[in-house]
Amino acid sequence: MDVVGAKQGSTTGLRAGALGLVGLATLGAVMMSPALGIYGNWGPMASIVGLPTPLVFLGALVVSLPTAVSYALVNREYPSAGSAFTWVWKTTSPAVATWVGLMMALYYTIAVILQPILFGLFFNSLLAFAGMKNPNLWTWALGVAIVTVFVFFLTYRGIELSTRSAVMFIAVEMLVVVALSLTIAGKTISDHHFSFAPLNPAHVTGGGSAFWAAMILGILSFTGYDVISTVAEEAHAPRRLLPKATLIATLGVGIFWALNSWMFSISVPISEVQKLTASGLTPAVPIAQQYWGWGQIFVILTAMTAATAVYVATVVGASRALYAMARQGTLPAPLARLHPKYRVPWNAMHAVYAGSLIGIIVLVAALKNALSAFVWWAGPIVFFALITYMFVNLANIVYFSRFARSRFNWFLNGLVPVVGIGLDAYLIYKSFFQALWSAGFQTGQSIILVSMILVVLGIGYVAYLKVSAAQRLAQPIAAFDDES
Length: 484
Description:
The protein is mainly α. The protein is 74% helix and 0% strand.
């Protein structure tokens, strides 16, 4: 199984050549979501560390860059919808790759869970703006249903429609965030309240433990640039464009967050942000109301379109991950079937939608607060993302050491991925096992418990395959045949 429907015009594989550099970079940026990084993550982050949220975003960028470089380098050599799953199969062993693939699939599926939760929260804000008194979980659920039906239509109709919609959404949302930040800057300067305090680490409240707890949300913001790797088989000239798109998305959105979170941090007292976050509200809308009045509607609407765009991107990434594993025989074969007209993995999408909606319903019912559910799911997604990232860095080292020795570079294929592995492992320890473990059961220890159960179940599934279907783990990895 050397080639799997990769050529332009193929009728057996994903639709090749559908995405160019703009589409690829946009897909990565959309999954990171410039607007939602501010609207959704900034408030809880500021509640933890106080003013210096730009330092958290910059710290998360530093942690993310080595892995982004590894993604870029391995994408150039071995583009595949299977991404980390395929690369680990090629460089280590099928059993390890299958487990890593499951961790990656969990990462992307949890990313899907987060988006309708946020859409529902801003849908409630829209209803409140329209005059409804006390929007509740039922109206929130209506918002979840509306966006899910809309995203169904976009993702099932093909990758081109999904990407065109994402380009439009991201352009509008970034303009609104920048406009609000400029308004805040102008007002604070005229009132003599402009401050550089958000750039001073001495203003971190809670010390180092608070900073590392906030880094969970920082890394959550950056998880997503790697979705670019899962559409390698649908890209034009993937070996040339995927590396560029990965680095453009990571650096561009990271700088965007650092600058805009600075403005948001000086917009209102942090005590007000903490109060709003604790009550289950996202602070972005009250801030927009304070500075723009009725213009807050633009923040509400772009938050909803941003969540929609990320919803699209996460479904694309999660379904391609399941598709690649099923194509290889490590997941049920029906997940590898493509729609005959649109060339998208419909069955894998069915599984993604079903799993994510179950995750939403169970946790929101348990916590009775949609924003709390969003923050809770931020823990597992970062955990599984960091596991995936560690193995991508490992694949960078092994691939160039074993299969491309003449192109091995001590810095790019040696030092950078080693630093990436070290940073990822340290962040798992500090932000996950240390910071979350001390946060109590509901918002900390339960996250670790559920995540570790899923890790063990993944190991159990691989053991089951080795006993009952060992031949599936003995075949060559499905490769993407593209010379561009």
